[in-house]
Amino acid sequence: MAPRLASAQFHKVLRRAHRPPYYAHANRGHAVRASKLNKNRTAASDPRAINLLFHTFNSHAYYKGVQQTQVGGQISVQDVMGGPQGRLRIDYVSPPQFAGDIMVTAPSVFLHYISKRQRTYVTRWPAGKRQRIAARLRALIRNRKLLVTQTGWQEIAGVNCTIVRLARIPASVPGGVTQRQLWIDPTSAVILRNERWSPSGIQSVSYFTSITIGPNSGVTRRDFTLASLPANPHKQRVIHQSTRVMSLNEAAQIAGIHVLLPAYIPAGYRENGIWTVQRGKLTGVLIRYGAGVNHFTIFEHRILRAPAMRPRPPVRPRAGVQTWRQYSAGATIAITYIGSLAPSEQLAMERSFR
Amino acid sequence: MNILNNNKIVNCASAECLLPQFVDGNLSAREAWQLEKHLAECRNCSTKVDQLKQTIDLLHTASRLDTADDFMAKLHARLDVIDESANSVGTVPQRASLRELAATYLRMLRVPGVPIGVAIGAVAVLMIALIPNLKPAPGTITTSKPDAHISTVVEAQLAQTAADPLGDAAADQLVVHQNNAIPDSYNP
């Protein structure tokens, strides 16, 4: 007869049994369990990389520096300030059309000051958003849909950083498809370089050219408040009343439209959720698709008074945001794509709406 | 012809519909007989028939005016330019091009023997102006500028990226606003 375990010991064994596989990997005593769990996978996440990744979510360091962003042929330079709980302030220096613009991210608000219009757009969200994002990321790692590995070290702006790779794991590619590469300072957990990847290659990169981390940066919490933005009389709240619905039929009923869907969705992407978005009397339907840490959004709403236009299919994809109109079930529907898919994927998806 | 009620012309309005065909001799014998009966009784309609015949005779006797040899080539070239500008993604047909087209026709007015060309041009311009007002056929795709509702969603998505520690709001901002994706009338 097997010896009966004491309650504390029993729970210890139970906890071990329910530990995620990447924990087992770190513990030599459970290497056998890890190898069994990883039988069908050739790659496993690195616990050190995971710890460092989640450390960035809880970084308490203040920092200030100059950041450069490259997307396609476009380059932007910004003065960046950061602080605890994801506080981030981006002051645009270039290109000229953005110079003077400021984006501030605080724990429950996003402020977007557009210099050209002398206006600040204020978007609020419920508290705990970062925690929810972290929980979703944990679930992706635990469910073996996201691979987090440490690929090396590199110095960025004089700071020795650990390179962490985030990759989606499709069944056909055991090594994963890179979605992010992050250069993280292991001491402060500040991300000094952020590369966004698609299957076709690197899409955008933001990196610090100079940075001061710690009290010497002179950054305070006040730098992330509305009061710190240039004084102007126009503060406009972005009213974004969205309600999550359970099905497309429910959304279509609320919005009063026949929702069109793409017949082609890029590999790995699946529907993450459906929302109805109300603005005035008009209700639209927002569908979010995700694959690992990459997302794209489709927003559809009815055009009450369709402007004069000729029916023309998109001849090339427009990066970031593309809007077109489709006539369906007796109504003209405006369809908007927001995302960062590869151009070929985007065009194929946009042309497949039925 | 459905205009006739039991093969009888009931009023002047139904008779007027048949007048052009009557003048051209395209009516059936029964319809022509019915109409002639009406014309014998109605002074207004008979006057209209006379006026119509005079107008047609006048057009037949008028001298023929020819356009320049390269008129059609120039017209098609201009139409192609308009077509290309409308083809570019994210733009609606340029009204400025229509003005340029009108200016070209006005310049051609100075050339003798061009009035008919001008008339054709005017019809072409009208057609170009009217085509965009047609409803898109089911399933067709067209491009347009985002409106306020869309701008709200775009701003909210930008905020969502900003809230994500792994997101890159600076890159998103650059992508969203490149190619003037968001117009100056941006108003979330």
Global Rg of chain A? 23 Å
Number of DSSP strand runs of chain A = 18
Helix content of chain B: 55-70%
Q: Based on the coordinates given, report the CATH architecture of the largest domain in chain A.
A: Clam
Query: Could you describe the largest sheet of chain B, including whether it forms a barrel?
Result: none
How much of the polypeptide of chain B forms β-strand, as a percent range? under 5%
Most extensive contact: A-B, 85 and 58 residues
CATH class (first level) name of the largest domain in chain A? Mainly Beta
| Class by alpha and beta content of chain B | mainly alpha
Q: What series of H and E elements makes up the topology of chain B? A: HHHHHHEHH
Instruction: Indicate the proportion of strand residues of chain A.
Output: 35-45%
Uncertain runs of chain A are: 17-42
Form type of chain A: globular
- Tally of discrete structural domains of chain A: 2
Helix content of chain A: 10-25%
Observed structural traits:
heterodimer, A: 354 residues, alpha+beta, outer membrane lipoprotein receptor (LolB), chain A, Phosphorylase Kinase, domain 1, 2 domains, twelve-stranded mixed sheet, six-stranded antiparallel sheet, 7 helices, 18 strands, 42% strand, globular, B: 188 residues, mainly alpha, 3 domains, 8 helices, 2% strand, disordered C terminus
